[in-house]
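User: quick one, sequence for these tokens?
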């Protein structure tokens, strides 16, 4: 169930999330700093990201139903996430938000929230 007044609702629901994830992984799959920590086939990774972002922005709790509690930091510990890789990830996301035509002020609000999450995921110095 979608909560009224959520970011998910404000940006238009599933379709913008899908556009965002598609645009994002197109970049991740070509980014030299990110390729080493992502699988060659990004299909399942993108599917999980769609579920997560839907839930993260106040939509249906699809990630919880499919994968359980997010526990993002723990799930990402096997991957060396350095400040440089965090920045690369955020660069891909910033470009994807524009390509997916997420309008302001939502684009900035989403990017700020994802920046906090990306900072939390770092687990290794350069």
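Assistant:
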């Amino acid at each position: 169930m979608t909560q009224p007044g959520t970011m998910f609702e404000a940006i238009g629901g599933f379709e913008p999330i899908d556009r965002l994830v598609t645009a994002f992984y197109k970049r991740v799959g070509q980014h030299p700093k990110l390729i080493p920590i992502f699988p060659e086939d990004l299909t399942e990774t993108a599917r999980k990201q769609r579920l997560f972002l839907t839930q993260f922005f106040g939509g249906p709790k699809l990630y919880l139903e499919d994968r359980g509690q997010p526990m993002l930091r723990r799930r990402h510990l096997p991957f060396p996430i350095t400040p440089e890789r965090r920045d690369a990830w955020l660069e891909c996301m910033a470009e994807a938000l524009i390509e997916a035509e997420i309008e302001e002020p939502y684009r900035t609000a989403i990017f700020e929230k994802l920046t906090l999450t990306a900072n939390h995921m770092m687990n290794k110095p350069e």
